[in-house]
Amino acid sequence: MTESTDSAGSAGSEDSADSGDGAPAAVAGGRERSALWRDAEFMKFWTGEGISQIGAQVTTLALPLTAVLTLDATSSEVGLVNAASYAPFLLVTLLVGVWVDRVRKRPLMIAANAGRALLVSAVPLLAVLDLLRIEFVYVAALLIGVLTVVFDVAYQSYLPTLIGKEHLVEGNSKLQGTSSLAQIGGPGLAGLLIGWATAPYALLINGGSYLVSVVSLLAIRRPEPPPAQPEQRTGLWRSVGDGIRIIWQSAHLRACALQSGLYNMCWMSLQTVFVLYAARRLDLSPGTIGLLLGTGAVGSLGGSLVARGLKRVMGLGPAILGALLLCCVAPVVIPLAPANGGIVTLALMVAAFALIGAGGTMANIHIISLRQSITPDELLGRMNAGYRFVSWGMLPLGALIGGWLGDLIGLRETLFVTAAAFLSAVLVVFLSPVWRLKDFPAQIGTSPETTAAVGS
What we know:
It is a single chain. This protein is mostly helical. It has one domain (about 35-225, about 240-455): Growth Hormone, Chain: A, CATH 1.20.1250.20. The protein is built from 18 helices and no strands. Keywords: Cell membrane, Membrane, Transmembrane, Transmembrane helix.
């Protein structure tokens, strides 16, 4: 799931002062102090995005566990639930990217979270009426996925306009840190809620988190600039194609997107099978499964804290490659752990998930920043959408492959196959110019045809 966050040059490694209603500005002498911590509008955005992350983490575990525990779903059916959740990244991401480039982003985020609140709350309401069926879980997962696409593409394109590109490293590091905390608390919270209220009703509580996020986003008062109007209006399908061309014509973006797609495919295969493996082979409770995934994500928080220092010491490219090695080798520990559910098994799995989280987050911080720093503002929506189309579009494929292999060769055997496949993501970056970068390259041209001019 590798994406990342850093701005061009060394921006974000120093602090800055808030300049009223505008984005934080640097002070005299080139030094900055206390940038985004003192920016009230960013703090509102950070709060809303963070609560959304927690809600998404609860949904990610509670929805498939609803299928497993309430509807007695098979491995293939759980794979279909996860596939439906991420299919919109393949089906509608490019269209959403064109839309995001043409409108203001904050209203889209608000509407998306309001819709997610409604959908996740509908599952327990149907359960109360004894009308919940696996088919509705598929539909809910699909629609929640569509709204997640809208929110994610909009928020990544909104951030540079809110804080300025010179603060992207700091802003993205804070957002990645919040994402890590959500991964720590979200699965554990989901497991506890499921244990206390059962899986469907945990989603009702989760619906409230999205509504709190809506309130936080509504409170932002910094004006969002209108989207840039092109001199010549481009047709819809030409604009959709631009999202792919922007990435394909840049060696750096192309390699990052391909490795992300491979990594995400393997991760979703692992996640689909692991929930079943932990529940049925290891006989772990929902609360333990959630806490296991959550404590493993402590590594993500650690990765977000050291990522900037790692880049400073190693350089951008080596830091990305080293982080990927860490998170792509660790998955083999999961099926190697004894299949008895004992303390050794739990300790090894916590260590594996911690290493996966640390490496993935460090890579994400730098890859997202690389993307944002070299892409002009007017192309950010299409670039983010094209990138998500390639990278997140592989998630439903991974879910289907994991579910199919789980039924065909067994759960533990599928975990071994998936662990080996993770190394393909490392190979893509090693064979590209990305790992040789010392710092951020020059910004790409303002038209898709000139994106091959990225500096090295």
